[in-house]
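Researcher: Next entry in the queue.
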Amino acid sequence: MQEICRRLVNHPFFDHFIIATILLNAAILGLETSAGLHEEYERWFSLVHAVILGIFILEAIAKIWAVAPRYRLYFGNGWNLFDFSIVVLSLIPASGPFAMLARLLRLLRVLRLISTIPELRLIVTTLVRSIPSMGNVLVLMSIIFYIYAVAGYHLFHEHDPTHWRNLGISLLTLFRIVTLEDWTDVMYAAMEMHPLAWTYFVSFVVMGTFVIINLFIAVVLNNLEEAKAERLNELQAPVSRDEILNELRDTQKALAKMHDRLEKLNLEEVKS
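Model: Structure for this entry, 272 residues:
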């Protein structure tokens, strides 16, 4: 039975089936947002949710049984823990005081696409690895925001109190500017009092948008390359003792053939 479970969970069709189940679950969750469809097919939707939950439970049981009794192989993997926690949370009954919570937790099943598709796992791993490096970039960005917010308050708060009346509002205004959302309106309002105010806004856009965002991208790309290299190392199967012995035998045979050829050439030279 354990061998059957091991073959099942390692078969490519198994992953494809789970991905199809997750996509079906996502489609049903989207259809439930239609009031007419929800009222007409509520029983069918509930039945499909129960079947999907049953599939996820059987999947977890099969994966755990496949590695028994070495359960650390399953629970020691962060992605397996993520999937297992989603299955456990999905067991909350969708009725009574927890009905709304249960419906919201069903959305977590869609997140299982991340753990099922290796490429998505690679992206998430890259983002997690980038968090420590992004801390330094965030510190630099915070310093720039703070300097420009204080300067903007002193320069523009009397003329444009809507956007610069205190430090907090000034920081929100700078956040709006860094997203490039109608930032020119704020700049033109400031230029009515200070014609050279454009230098303040243009310099902040260059520093806050182009430089900082490019730093974030550089950090993510660097960690993406490292994550790819680690994944390639994991995918490379370790060389077994038998493979090494076979390669040595092949090498010995090739050397023996070369030795025979050299001896023949020497004999032909001696005869000539």
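Model: The chain has a mean pLDDT of 81.
Researcher: Noted, moving on.
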